[in-house]
């Protein structure tokens, strides 16, 4: 135990290992459940039976070769022996019939008579002749003669039929023997899956391993989640299949399977386990089907290994033991700890609950949003003033002075409001200093008044001499304007 803590850290505690891992007991569940009906067994066999095919069963006969390969070994051996036995008996009977019809059976011991087949005088001798011919044993005691044309035709038919039967049955047996199903038995999956934190994210993990030294070429792994659900339209889907991303977007699903690997599925907003928590696992019912595919290096045939994990076989807050250690000149894999897990600190909440709690604990929206709104209002005011100024006559545009006069005032007012809003973000000492009378606000007001008076004086100075006299040195201009301009102003603004 001390060596394990030095290896993994003091904060980790070994809780349980599987029977094959370390002899411990499985973790206790809150309430024992009955036997779970699985869609895929742990050994990869699918618990599906097809029934009520009706007329569709004839499709099996249309592809009889594949049907024969898919049969169990006992049925294959039975069909193999039965086919050869029937073929031999049938062909031996044909040779016996020819000998019987020609009368060779009664004259078999007559040296002056030439039979169809020499030394065939009963059914056993006809059967032995067929076996010697079919198996090309060639003892030389029984042979066909040229006095029997029907025997020559039967001999040709026998050769063709024998070649077809040999190719069919021997090819079927060879393909069945070379199927990589037994290779899949040397591909291991962990007995349990685990959920814990990895790289700061809640992750579903399980382990795969290869017991042989020969590699799996182009090994790829996929995961399916089987779970019943009901659609918004009311349709019930008993075995709805959802894809679990185990690195398809990053290429992590392409495995270099020379040592045991831990396959990870990150639980995020796109994952079907987005709302899964430690508490909800006791009421959920699902099954994770794992499919590992690859090419067998020795035969070049595609191999597929399957397994599944039900909700009872997913351990929350666990992690797998490390199994690889560095020895002198090589890496050693300890398969005795392949299925073993230990407990690690893991939050019991789902990813959705964690995100909601993080949102609730985050600070409120800063006042920069309101400042942006006021900036938009000031920009709208500036645009309105520009439109009004553009519609005035050219003389009145000159009278009003520079074009950027109202823009400067509004910009100053907007910056003043921004400073006022930004005061709330300052520390308390700075806010007290800024609140002292006679500070920046009064200075800003005096500067604004000065800037408002300067453009007016400049605009009056830029007027023609006649208009300067009428304006009375910067006073109200509307009463001293000529009648035409006064009428134009009144028409324009009314």
UniProtKB/TrEMBL annotation:
Pfam families: IRK, IRK_C
Species of origin: Picathartes gymnocephalus (White-necked rockfowl)
UniProt keyword annotation of Ion transport present: yes
Reactions that this protein is recorded to catalyse: K(+)(in) = K(+)(out)
Protein name as catalogued: G protein-activated inward rectifier potassium channel 1
Taxonomy of the source species: Eukaryota, Metazoa, Chordata, Craniata, Vertebrata
Recorded family membership: Belongs to the inward rectifier-type potassium channel (TC 1.A.2.1) family. KCNJ3 subfamily.
Domain Inward rectifier potassium channel C-terminal per the UniProt entry, residue ranges: 187-357
UniProt keyword Transcription regulation, yes or no: no
Molecular functions (GO terms): G-protein activated inward rectifier potassium channel activity
Subcellular location: Membrane
GO biological process, one term: regulation of monoatomic ion transmembrane transport
Topology within the bilayer: Multi-pass membrane protein
UniProt cross-references to SUPFAM superfamilies, sorted A to Z: E set domains, Voltage-gated potassium channels
Residue stretches of biased makeup (Polar residues): 446-460
One cellular component term from this protein's GO annotations in UniProt: plasma membrane
Coiled-coil residues: none
Keywords: Ion channel, Ion transport, Membrane, Potassium, Potassium transport, Transmembrane, Transmembrane helix, Transport, Voltage-gated channel
Transmembrane segment boundaries: 77-98, 152-175
């Amino acid at each position: 135990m001390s060596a394990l803590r030095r290896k993994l850290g003091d904060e980790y505690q070994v809780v349980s290992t599987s029977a094959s891992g370390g002899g411990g007991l499985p973790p206790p569940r809150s309430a024992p459940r009955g036997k779970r009906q699985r869609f895929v067994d742990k050994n990869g066999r699918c618990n599906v039976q097809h029934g009520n095919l009706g007329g569709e069963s004839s499709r099996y006969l249309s592809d009889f070769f594949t049907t024969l390969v898919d049969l169990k070994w006992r049925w294959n051996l039975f069909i193999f022996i039965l086919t050869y036995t029937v073929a031999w008996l049938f062909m031996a009977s044909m040779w016996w019939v020819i000998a019987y019809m020609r009368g060779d059976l009664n004259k078999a011991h007559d040296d002056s008579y030439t039979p169809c087949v020499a030394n065939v005088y009963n059914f056993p001798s006809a059967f032995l002749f067929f076996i010697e011919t079919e198996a090309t044993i060639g003892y030389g005691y029984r042979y066909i003669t040229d006095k029997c044309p029907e025997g020559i035709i039967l001999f040709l038919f026998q050769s063709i039929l024998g070649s077809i039967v040999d190719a069919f049955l021997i090819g079927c047996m060879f393909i069945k023997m070379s199927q990589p199903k037994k290779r899949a038995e040397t591909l291991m999956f962990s007995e349990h899956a685990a959920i814990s934190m990895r790289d700061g994210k809640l992750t579903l993990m399980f382990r795969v391993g290869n017991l042989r030294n020969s590699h799996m070429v182009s090994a790829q792994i996929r995961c399916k989640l089987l779970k019943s659900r009901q659609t918004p339209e009311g349709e019930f889907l008993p075995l709805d299949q959802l894809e679990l991303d185990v690195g398809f977007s990053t290429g992590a699903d392409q495995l270099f399977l020379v040592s045991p690997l831990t396959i990870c599925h990150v639980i995020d907003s796109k994952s079907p386990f987005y709302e899964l928590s430690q508490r909800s696992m006791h009421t959920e019912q699902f099954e994770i089907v794992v499919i590992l595919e690859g090419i067998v290096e020795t035969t070049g045939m595609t191999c597929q290994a399957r397994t599944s994990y039900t909700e009872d076989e997913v351990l929350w807050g666990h992690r797998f033991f490390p199994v690889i250690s560095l020895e002198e000149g090589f890496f050693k894999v300890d398969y005795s700890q392949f299925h073993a897990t230990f407990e690690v600190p893991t939050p019991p909440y789902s990813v959705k609950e964690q995100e909601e709690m993080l949102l609730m604990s985050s600070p409120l929206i800063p006042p920069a949003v309101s400042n942006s709104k006021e900036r938009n209002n000031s920009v709208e005011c500036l645009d309105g003033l520009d439109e009004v100024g553009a519609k005035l006559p050219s003389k009145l545009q000159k009278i009003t002075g520079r074009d950027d006069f109202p823009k400067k005032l509004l910009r100053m007012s907007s910056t003043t409001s921004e400073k006022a809003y930004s005061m709330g973000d300052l520390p308390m000492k700075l806010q007290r200093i800024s609140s002292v009378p006679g500070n920046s606000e009064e200075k800003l007001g005096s500067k604004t008044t000065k800037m408002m008076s300067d453009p007016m004086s400049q605009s009056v100075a830029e007027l023609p001499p006649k208009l300067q006299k009428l304006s009375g040195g910067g006073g109200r201009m509307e009463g001293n304007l000529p009648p035409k301009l006064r009428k134009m102003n009144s028409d324009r603004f009314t």
